[in-house]
Every structure is written in structure tokens, then in C-alpha cells.
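Page 47, continued from p. 46.
Same chain as before, 338 aa.
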Amino acid sequence: MGLGLPTIEKTWQYYANKDWNWDGSSDFGKQKFLSVKIGLTTFVNSSWTIEYSCDGSVAGSAGDGIDRWGTVVTDVSSLVHTTNSSNARSWIVLKQSAIASNFQILIDLVGGDSNRAKIFYSYSSGFTGGAINSRPTATDEFLLCDNLDWGTGSAFVGARHNVVMSSDGEVTRVFFVGEGNIEGFFSFELPKNIATGWTTPHVCINALKNGASSVLKYSDILEASTDYGAYSTFNNEFTGNSNTLNCFLTSETSKTFAVGDSSNQDMAFNQVSSKWEMYPVGFYCDLAPHRGRHGTLYDMWFVASSLGNGRTIPKEAKDYVVLDDICIPWNDTVLKIY
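Result:
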């Protein structure tokens, strides 16, 4: 892109700087899960809707619309977490029709410790079934996050989370911060500039890692692996966890894009103009039969990591905020990273 600040294309809503109360118990993780659900479902415009849920004692049925998790973040009595997928636990199915008419996610509270949960998504089929000791399933489901920390798993001072969603519902981003670090990120996005022939456009990013910090570094987020990266399903070829677009995120200029070359990101300061560059983020698949650059993301840019986490741009107006090596629109407040 050119010099100076980019144009923000969408309007954004923020559930920002939300704390959770570490008291030495498993409630720490449950508060995060519940608060993120509250954030997703309480925006003024285009909020995620609740399809059905389970509190570990009663399991709903698909489409009943009942929230069995509750709406008070400090009351986690309806959330049951387990380390064994055969045991009773809580789960919830949410829907965002702005991405696709029946796009759904499932948050399943099972993981190796109380700070971890699984996230599945279904592009069109939707989740059905489920009981207190078994999760719902979908014929086109994809496991986006498997047994990974939702933010800090060991250092609990200053841990916070943020849910950011476009007012049209097409883009949702969730990230976790603590002790100055970006400790987790996941998103569900309708991209733009999509490749001709792609009839199911969407990108889901998983940047959750166990015990990790600085998860949005340029080198890491370009690593399209089995448990970390950007994912999508291609048209109607999807079955199980195959036939996905396992993508790299790309750093783009007006004429070219870079895949996996950190040196491009390091050159973000323009010595002639004395300004920092902000490069749009695209996505690229290097595997047949879906090889190619398939589109770009709304209102996300690669920037130089030397700018520092939580830096707002401009400093006074706070229209953008830096998260490791990416930058997104912000809500004119200070991002609390400690």
C-alpha cells in the first residue's frame, strides 16, 4: 500500500479490556469462556445468536435458542469443564449468518486443563445432536482449536481479553493479552477480493498456543500447520478435516505479496517519508489442488514489531492498535496489556 494511514473500510464494535478474576481455581478459565460468549452475543449490531447449549446437566436441542451458560461473568455455576471427552461438560453453539447463512461455531469445554477448550466450525450444515457427555456434530465440521490455551495458562497477572466485531457481522476477532504480550487470537472472517470460483469464502484463524506469548509474530502466523494458522473450506469438497485451504497469511503491497519472508516485514519503516508502512494482509495456499492467493482480509495490516504491543496510531486519536506484528482498528481507548 502507499504511505500514511490506510482507510478503515468497516465500522467496528468492541468488547474491550475485559478482566477475569484469578482466584487460584478452575473458575479462571470458565470466566474467560463465559465472557467471550457474552461478548460475541451482546453487540448492538449483528451479534452472534445462540443456537443451543449445554450446562453439563441439561443439553438443549438444535435451534432451541436457549442460553444455558448465563450472562454474569463471575457466575460460572453453569459451566462444567472436563479433561475427558466422555465426561459431562458444557458446550454452546453460536451462529453468524453474516459470514454464511448457516455459519456456526461450537465451543466445547474439554481440554487438558481448565484454561483450554475446543472450537469447531460448520460453514453450512450446522450442528445437531449432543448430550451432557457428548458434543454436537456437523457433517462439514472443522476442528479449528484443539486443546489449546485461551490466553495465559500460567501467569495470571493483568490477563485480559477483547472481542472485536464489524457492525455488519462479517468479521469477528478475539484476542487475549497479559504481561505485555499477545497471548492468543482467533477469528472468523468473510474475506474480500476473493478468487474467482471460490463459492464458500471464509477464513478462520487460530493463533492459540499452549503457554505461548507473542502469538501474532510475522514468522509464526505465516506457519500454516495442523494446529496454528489460517483455514478455510473449499466449496463443497470438504469432508472431515481434509480438503481445506490451509493458508499462509501474506504481507501485501499494491503490486506484490510476500509469503513467509520476514525480511519484508522488517522493512516497514520508510526512510524517505519517515513514516511506518502498514501492509494489507492476504492469504495464500501452497498446496494442490487449491494452490494460489485467494483474497485479502478487511482492516488488518502487517506492521513492524518494533512499534510495540498496545501502541495506538495516531497516538492521540487511537484509531489503530498494534498487536505484535499486526495492526487493527481500535476504539480510541488505551489497550490494557498489563
